[in-house]
Specification:
The protein is an alpha/beta fold. Helix content is 17%, strand content 28%. The chain contains 3 helices and 9 strands; from the N terminus they run H-E-E-H-E-E-E-E-H-E-E-E. It has helices at 8-19, 42-51, 120-131; strands at residues 23-29, 32-37, 59-67, 81-89, 94-101, 109-111, 134-136, 165-170, 175-180. The strands form 3 sheets. It has a 5-stranded mixed sheet with strand order 1-2-5-4-3. Strand 8 and strand 9 (175-180) form a beta hairpin. The radius of gyration is 23 Å and the shape is globular.
């Protein structure tokens, strides 16, 4: 395991002091620090994590959306949507996970981190595409993985696995067309093998 220039315990203390009341929680688990901030403080907290002398998280290395609607079979009682970012300090050799929950499920909007880290641009487009989370202040928020005419957000827990439409090339029209999904849902029952010595296995 790589030695850290600052211990996770010291990093937890440093971030707690740096963010103050802007941090809803600063948790240390499995040697990793996770910070949860409110949506109203998200952008300011991210800026502090980048600029504060004991933090100096110069790089955003990942950002993704979350849908907690079926988390632990309905045990979750918080907001449905959230955003998780992973930050890296090259100068101090430390990492932190930054989480924010989106207050409005019907119109999930949270600040964009692009003014803080340019790298957030494509990650936020992906979270917008797959989860429908809108990033306020993003200057080019478009779908990035699905097709131009795609309807819905495929990583939401209420989106069907097979989707709503499928596309295929129509030779007569000489173009790609969309049509309702032709896959019929089926229940797969595992095969139970009851024969002795099946497949030549040893007893």
């Amino acid at each position: 395991m790589t030695d850290f220039a600052i211990s996770p315990e010291a990093l937890q203390t440093q971030i707690t002091e740096t963010l103050g009341s802007k941090a809803k929680s600063v948790v240390l688990a499995l040697g990793e620090v996770t910070v949860v901030v409110g949506a109203a403080d998200y952008l300011e907290a991210a800026t502090l994590l980048r600029d504060a002398p004991g933090c100096r998280f110069e790089q955003l290395i990942d950002l993704c959306g979350m849908d907690y609607s079926d988390y632990r079979e309905g045990e979750w009682e918080g907001e449905r949507f959230g955003v998780v970012s992973h930050l890296l300090s090259v100068s101090l050799n430390q990492r932190v996970r930054l989480k924010v929950f989106v207050p409005n499920e019907d119109l999930p909007v949270v600040d964009s981190l692009t003014p803080v880290w340019n790298a957030a641009g494509w990650f936020e487009r992906e979270a917008f595409d797959l989860y429908g989370i809108v990033f306020e202040g993003h200057d080019d928020l478009r779908r990035i993985l699905t097709d131009y005419g795609f309807i819905g957000h495929p990583f939401r827990k209420d989106f069907p696995v097979s989707g709503h439409v499928e596309m295929r090339y129509d030779a007569e029209q000489k173009r790609v067309i969309y049509q309702p999904v032709s896959i019929e849902p089926r229940e797969i029952t595992p095969r139970v093998i009851r024969e002795d010595n099946y497949g030549g296995g040893l007893h």
